Amino acid sequence: MDLFRLKAHELHEKLIRREISAVEITRSVLQRADKAETLVHSFITRTQESALERAGAVDAKIAQGAEVSPLAGIPGALKDNMCTKGIKTTCASKILADFVPPYDATVTLKLAATDAVIVGKANMDEFAMGSSTENSGFFVTRNPWDTDRVPGGSSGGSGAAVAAGEAVWSLGSDTGGSIRLPAAYCGVVGMKPTYGRVSRYGLVAYASSLDQIGPFARDVRDCATVLEAISGYDRRDSTSIDVQVPQYTKNLAAGVKGLKVGLPREYFVSGMQPEVEAAIRASIDELVKQGAELTEVSMPHTEYALATYYLIATAEASSNLGRYDGVGFGHRGEGSDIISMYKRSRTEGFGEEVRRRIMLGTYSLSSGYYDAYYLKALKVRRLIQQDFDRAFEKVDVLIAPTAPTTAFKVGEKVDDPLAMYLMDVCAVPVNLAGVPALSLPCGFADGLPVGMQIIGPHLSEERILQTGFAFEQTHDYHKMMAPLQEVG
Amino acid sequence: MKINRKDVEHVALLSRLEFSEAELEKYTGQLDAILAYIDVLKQVDTEGVEPLAHVLDLKNVMRPDVVQPSLPRKTALLNAPEPENGFFKVPKIVE
Amino acid sequence: MQYGKVIGLEVHTELKTASKIFCGCTTEFGGEQNTHVCPVCLGLPGVLPVLNEKVLEFAVRTGLALNCKIAPYSKFDRKNYYYPDLPKNFQTSQYDLPICVGGYLDIEVNGETKRIGITRVHMEEDAGKLVHAGTISNSEYALVDYNRTGVPLLEIVSEPDIRTPEEAKAYLEKIKSILSYIDVSDCKMEEGSLRCDANISLRPLGQEKFGTKAEVKNVNSFKAVQRALEYEVERQTEILSEGGRIIQETRSWDDSRGITLSMRNKEQAEDYRYFPEPDLVPIVVDPVWVETICNNLPELPDARKKRIMTECGLSAYDAEVITATRAMADYYDEIVKAGAEAKIAANWLMGDVSKHLNSCVMDIRFCPVSPVNLAEMISLIEKGTISGKIAKSVFESMWNEGKTAGEIVKEQGLVQMSDAGELDGIVAAVMAANPQSVADFNAGKDRAIGFLVGQIMKQTKGRANPELVNRILKDKLTGK
After folding, report:
1. Which domain does A457 fall in, by range?
2. Residue that wins the pLDDT comparison between C213 and A397
3. CA C394, CA C398: separation in Å to the nearest integer?
4. Which of A80, B37, C424, C467 is deepest in the core (most CB within 10 A)?
């Protein structure tokens, strides 16, 4: 049997029963990736050697009768914007093509403590700016369900790797939908936790008040397992929440009887692919059969979320990316004086979309425009957060599409930035409010996966996961893997 | 027109980026379109609304004044494009 | 046309915390380049800042010592600009909601007290150091040392209430004094832990509206501030008298040439694009905590000066010198507590002690003569055991050998001779040995007495009690 097709919890069972070894699991996943990479291109860096070493160490531990964590020996990937000490961390940008961090991100350390096996650093849109992974400075990752299509972005590599069996789980980052969108397009489970739930220390910043790290997995239980491993207070992150992490896997089967589910009418946008809407509505019906109670809610400021997001995110990004200047690290361009050197380094190092967002962000913060743009956006942000607060007074969770369409073709939207931005319309309000949201497979449209979003109030990850789990029991989408026929 | 070429040139300078003629044209057009879309925010009445800079209600997050070990210099300079004698070397700063 | 001067000062002081403002690197001065750095202060991708609680405490302490209001709600902002000494190309500072606002301090110039307003005090991080091959203007490259990035700074901004370069110097001395009293900074301009930028404009006498100001940077001592301002007054006066306009710009002080030079190129549309720092959360101070800090403030320089004047009867000038730093004021208090007479103690402190400290460039905290020992020496003078003159060499020995006055006097046999009978004999002997001087005195040459006294002192190795010697000698000479 192909071990790479199994879930983490299934593998863990077999592992502790000594039916299989961690090395065998890792070999299976690595060999799958050896073949799949020719089509999917999920990884910027692969770390096969250290992966096998760690797997071996786990096997030794088990042989000695030691207890191991649920992720021990289970291969996963990290998006290449999470610092890994001694291993290149590029953010898919030429400006960091050779950057080797001298320190580990907190999530990297936390995963090491579980004895998880890391098989590589995943491709992404450069500096997490994009919705398709076409903005990577190196190459485009392909959607394993249809390699002519994008995997979504910006965590496209992380989503595709899991969908293709090149990793059992992975981590992505979500600033404006960058975990949830690839999860939907690639037919896997992806979650953005509450802002502050997972430490940002070591995550290369894009938009500081919006960025969050979260898991990709092939079912809700695995997603909960990874979330538990990476969550928690970190004194190195001033925006980290100091609240105990629940055992997310403990009560997954709580069910949805009596759960009040809100359907935000503004998320069912006109221009939504009809099959996508149909899949979502059919899924909602399933939840009702399980005992959920539906209410329609209104989030009146939803239509302003995209504009708000693009002002806040680009403003923060324009400042966060100021440090890439060729002085202390990263690509240095030719220049006889410092200003020419700055300009050359940054212009050569940054791709088009990154430069565009830096320009937009700088403009919105600049003298004369700050009030009309950035400050205005911060005010609308409060109104958007209040929309969520009001909705959650009436309901326990919200259900909506993750994206208005299924995965589009590579090249289809690259020349129209605005059209690309519109892919995030259902996703960005969640980041602006800082609330948690899960995307999980809920059907197909023309053979392509459709994702459904479950959104909850601050720190309601347990409830969201329970809802997702209950929904999962009504179908078999999580048992399916992208065919990747050419790979077999 | 929300943004013109001169604005774009000014913003490029502030961002330490340089653009060719063709790029300036293209970026000006694209930024203009984006800003036109963003104009939708003008419709929102934000009178008396406090800006939301932090989604969490955290305050006073601090650490004790305790010295921690610094990096060995070799490590600090590991990624330096032009290290020299323990310093980071940069081209001249024209005042 | 006469012009009035309007001056405002911005002082930056490095706080003497053990670690940096946003990371745990040491703030120690003078380490080998790039050995006090970590991913956070280097601004590497992915790092985040965490505020050092001591920085906030020092900021509040300083605000209170400067009579400011402590803001109930305060936050950090990013000031964005590109410069190689700034790793992130933004400085985390405070823009519109600083921690302290609306204070003042009093200065004394020419016997008059004047109140200078303080607009604000805020926290920010320091940048690194640039080393240039040659001078900044002709160097082909620069070398960057990030040890200093992230060292905590307080920026103290005065209202434009200062009217003369002398007032500016007095203001700076008072700031330094206060900061040293509350022990938040080393205040060493030569080490860069205290820096000053000055803003100056002129306006026709009688006009209320301020003129255009120029900002002067790169002044590295209080004297330089005064000189730079005096130069600016001349420069601006000349331009205005010729009908020209002052350009609002930043100028750099060239100490060797004694002039300011325009740094106008740097000004080029610098737009800092301030926005709230998203990686740090707001500060909401607890009024009870602020109250505690307030109650624990040490006696500040002005109050201490007044108290010393009242309790010890010192002049304003003497009190000012002694209370310039807390360490000296504390030293003085100890001498007096140990029993020494207040004025004599003041004279010794301002005289011999300070002279010795200055020649060794030593801080009074390291003075080898303890206040108690100095007090003992002073009491020996008061008791007449040694003369004032002998005391000077006793002090010298105390400084070099670390012994007490009593020990030295005993060892060197310096006890003053005050036995009239003993002295009588010596005086008689010297008179007998110098008949010519006696004759000269009797002939009306009063100065001859000086020679005789000198001989007596020589014979007694300076130990003879001068007043007694003079009396006995006079008596004998006049035949009493």
Report:
1. 3-262+393-479
2. A397
3. 6
4. A80
Tell me what pLDDT residue A136 has.
Answer: 98
**Cα angle C328-C219-C300, degrees, rounded to a multiple of 5:** 30
| Domain-embedded: residue A376 | no
Q: At what angle do helices C371-383 and C326-337 cross, to 10 degrees?
A: 50
Give the residue extent of every domain in chain C: 3-289, 299-412, 420-477
Number of folded domains that form chain A:
1
If phi > 0 it is left, if psi is from -120 to 50 it is alpha, else beta; for residue A367 that is beta
- Which pLDDT belongs to residue C476? 85
Q: What is the CA radius of gyration of chain B?
A: 23
Query: What whole-number distance in Å separates Cα of residue A374 and Cα of residue A364?
Result: 6
How many Å lie between the alpha carbon of A24 and the closest alpha carbon of chain C?
A: 34
- Has residue B63 been placed in a domain? no
Residue type at C237?
A: T
Considering the domain boundaries, does residue A298 fall inside one?
A: no
Contacts of C118 (CB under 8 A, 6+ apart): C66, C67, C68, C102, C103, C104, C105, C156, C157, C158, C159
Nearest to A96 among C45, C274, C275 (CB): C45
Torsional sign, CA C279, C284, C288, C293? positive
- Chain A residues whose CB is inside 8 A of the C42 CB are 328
- Does some domain include residue B58? no
What is the dihedral angle through the alpha carbons of A33, A36, A38, A39, rounded to the nearest 10 degrees?
A: -140
Residue A257 within any structural domain of the chain: yes
Which residues are registered as beta bridge partners of C417? C464
Q: How confident is the model at residue A414 (pLDDT cuts 50, 70, 90)?
A: confident
Render pLDDT for A190-215 as a digit per residue (tens, 0 to 9).
Answer: 999 999 999 999 999 999 999 999 99
Domain span at residue B25 reads 5-43
Q: Is A109 on the interface with B (CB under 8 A)?
A: no
Residue B53 within a domain: no
Kindly report the average pLDDT of chain A as a whole number: 96
Name residue C304's amino acid: R
Beta strands in C63-211 (DSSP E): 69-70, 73-74, 77-80, 90-93, 100-109, 112-125, 129-132, 141-145, 152-158, 194-204
Distance from CA of A292 to the nearest CA of B (A): 29
Domain total of chain B = 1
**A428 assigned to some structural domain:** yes
Q: Measure the CA–CA gap between A225 and A120, rounded to whole angstroms.
A: 20
Angle at C180 between CA C179 and CA C183, to 5 degrees: 90
Q: A235: part of which helix (H) or strand (E)?
A: none
Q: What is the pLDDT of residues C397-411, one digit of tens each?
A: 899 988 888 888 888
Q: Which of C42, C275, C280 sits opposite A315 (nearest CB)?
A: C275
Question: Which positions in chain A touch B11 (Cβ < 8 Å)?
Answer: 359, 362-363, 366
Mean pLDDT of A131-137: 97
For chain C (480 residues), the mean pLDDT of every run of 10, in chain order, is 92 97 96 97 98 98 98 98 97 98 94 95 97 74 96 98 94 95 90 91 92 90 92 94 90 92 67 96 97 95 93 90 90 92 92 90 89 91 83 90 86 81 87 87 84 87 84 81
CATH number for the domain including B28? 1.10.20
For the domain covering C420-477, report its CATH number.
1.10.10.410
Domain CATH code at residue A147: 3.90.1300.10
Phi/psi class of residue A411: alpha, beta or left (left: φ > 0; alpha: ψ in -120 to 50)? left
Percent of chain A exceeding pLDDT 90 equals 94
Q: Single out the residue of A134, A127, A56, A50 nearest to residue A93, CA to CA.
A: A127
User: What angle is formed at CA A431 by the lines to CA A85 and CA A463, rounded to 5 degrees?
Assistant: 95
Q: How much is the mean pLDDT over chain B? A: 94
Of B64, B70, B90, the CB nearest to C142: B90
Task: Give the model confidence (pLDDT) of A242-292 as tens digits.
Answer: 999 999 999 999 999 999 999 999 998 778 899 999 999 999 999 999 999
Q: What pLDDT does residue C267 have?
A: 47
